[in-house]
Amino acid sequence: MNYETTMSGTLNGQVLQDNRDRNQRRIRIAAIIVAILVIAGAAYYFFGSSGSAAPADADKSGQAQTVTVVAPGRDTVVRAINATGTLAARREIPVGVVGEGGRVLQVYVDAGDWVSQGDVLVSVDRSVQTQQAAALEAQIGVARADLQLAQNELDRAMQLVERGFISKADVDRKTATRDATRARVNVANAQLAETRARNARLDVRAPVSGYVLERNVETGQTVSAGSGILFRIAKDGQLELQAKLSEDDLAQVAVGIPATVTPVGTERVFNGNIWQISPMIDTQSRQGMARVALPFDKALRPGGFASVEIKSGAMTAPVLPESAVQTGREGSFVYIVGKNNKVQQRPVKVGSVTANGLIIEQGLDGTERVVLYAGGFLNPDETINPKLLKKQ
């Protein structure tokens, strides 16, 4: 019994070992087959496909690939300059305290209101100044009474001098007294006028008609000449866009040229024109300011940003689709077809974008055959089979 059990265990162990050996051989064989397939596929990819594709391409297109080209010619286009700038009042008037100031009794306007020249913006307490004016009025009354008395005495002296009761010297003294009293009346009148003028200046008034942009004063506040700016007013509501342009663009614009302005956050377009060009160039940014006059509209908020397109006049130049222009380390360039249908790289200066494409300001005269598509896949001096596309 023990012998049979031992033999059975031995046989079973041998069977398991044989199965493990067969599985390992199968795994090694499968791994070898996979490796062979991978190597064969790589060899086909690198050698077989390229070798078979070359004859196919050669049969299909001859010895060179067919590339679409175009002769752009020269078109008359409107040169447009695109820039961004800041919206502002064309003439911003700061308003502060002109007189001696005091406690604010009432503020009559707020930001966003329209005012006319001379309108009262702020009234200031004038109780003390009113009493001072009343005192001066009383002094004028006293001076006038003294003048009347001096005049009467002079008149009586003139009657008595003819009879010899008064000397001529007495008449001269009374005349001088009358003249001095009249002068005191004039001084009192001038002092009263000055006080009234000062009192009138206690009220802050609008120096110009326009649109109130900013208010910096409240009722009960004490104001004086050192209180700073209380209001900012856009004179007549006139606005502008302050656009910074490069030296090249600034040389292309002039006063009166039309422009379209689109504020950030809206699709509304406002028409304006350049009313002033900065006579100086900033030494740091190498830019100058072009100011575009705009009509008043509440959608135009001073201090906000806007984009502007300035029509800088018509010019005659080649126009190419964007697909024909490439960009490299040294700037923009195109491929043109030269002798023997070999492509050559030609640097160009690209202008503004139009509905028909890019304006080529320098580098082409319009008679060249320019590669329209697939320029990024070509190399200089590569031979192609050009297919000319006629312009519509």
Any overview of this molecule?
This protein has 392 residues and is α+β, with helices and mostly antiparallel strands. 34% of the residues lie in helices and 33% in strands. It contains four helices and 23 strands. The strands form six sheets. It has a six-stranded antiparallel beta barrel with strand order 2-11-14-13-12-15. The longest helix is centred in the N-terminal third of the chain and has 60 residues, at 2-61. It is elongated, with a radius of gyration of 48 Å.
Counting copies of identical and different chains, the oligomeric state is: single chain
Number of helices: 4
Let me know the largest β-sheet. Answer: 6 strands, antiparallel, barrel
Order of helices and strands: HEEEEEEHHEEEEEHEEEEEEEEEEEE
Question: Radius of gyration over alpha carbons?
Answer: 48 Å
**Count of β-strands:** 23
Spans where pLDDT lies below 50 across 5 or more residues: 1-8, 45-61
The end-to-end span amounts to 105 Å
Global structural class: alpha+beta
Average of pLDDT? 80
Task: Give the DSSP E fraction (strand runs of 2 or more residues).
Answer: 25-35%
General form:
elongated
List the strand order in the largest sheet.
Answer: 2-11-14-13-12-15
- Amount of helix: 25-40%
